[in-house]
Amino acid sequence: MPKWRCRLMWVTRICSRAILFSFGYHWIKRKGKPARREVAPIVVSNHVSYIDPIFFFYELFPTIVSSESHDSMPFVGTIIRAMQVIYVDRFSRSSRKHAVNEIKRKASCNRFPRVLLFPEGTTTNGRSLISFQLGAFIPGYPVQPVIVRYPHVHFDQSWGNISIAKLMFRMFTQFHNFMEVEYLPLVSPHESRKENAVHFAERTGHTIASALNVEQTLHSYGDFMLFTKAAELKQENPSLYMVEMAWVQSSLHLKALEAVDFLEIYLQMNPDPRGQVEFHDFLRALRLKPCGLSEKMFEFIDVQKIGKITFKQFLLGSAHILKQPLFRQACELAFSECDTNDKNYILKQELQDAVSLSIPNLNCEEINGLYSLFDVDNHGKIGRNEFVACLKRYPLLIALFAPKLLHMSSSISDQCLLEEVL
Question: Can you give the residue ranges of the EF-hand domain (predicted)?
């Protein structure tokens, strides 16, 4: 970095301390010391408040890895840009790959500042530690864990389910706010065992959780997305819809955005205050009527056999079907069976004929409701892409076409897929 820029950045760092002072952080308690940049080129910390990056900019002058959405935040956005930010779009594979390459490049050269990451990927209330993203650990350099605490009496300064404007206002109205920072011993990858990034992240997470005296859970940023969506849709207790997405993603390879889509469907079922759904509400959302097949579908989700399902059960059951290797093939086969004249679309009567083997005696209103799920554009016919997209959104509905597909006897594998649902 040019000398003129270094001098200018010192002025900016002093301004950062002035910002902290104005927010009521008149003194900040520290424990331990930051390691030299040559020893620990990467720093990782728990993430509690938007104050965290302001403090680290003043204290360590690092390069930070941040979501692009943070760029527009007051005070913080300006400071993040000054920290030579590495932007990342968490939903883009190419963006994540680029960010990891940038972390490697800057961590490998002492000409660059150390790299700061908040591996949780979002803020928490500090009373638990959620699962870590792997960006800080893939490069394989030693990391220095840092923990941040905000002791309080009257006002919890964590940035959770509260707007940034209200949080800033509450901070300004307190005479003094407390902040404690503790630098922990370095954590290095086991070179002899060629430790992978997952184990490296787990060991680092355990170190931070032990120092904080909290539990590390399998929640992730995906759970924050589910919480936010539930709150946006006026649910009384949005935390009921958090499902430990880190485990779900690793076990079923389900993306967070897919989980949010399933939550929207589930909330259409009108869950009770405990977040549970009964059989009749389940049927209403899927446009089905009580019958032997719909009862089997509900029982497939209701693993506890109590007559009610939770969102986690609905998510796991739906994802289990969706991620079957032959699911897409089964959808294509179902469309081909319904499209009797090979015209590449399905009419209402054809859909009725196809599902009548599973659910007989559907009246006009019932078939119209089911048809509306597939015919999203409401133009009177269902194209192939519409049909497959609907079944991906409502994977349980593949069971409607089971008799036709099983009758085809195309392969044992196809039958196993459908029998998994039934």
Answer: 362-397
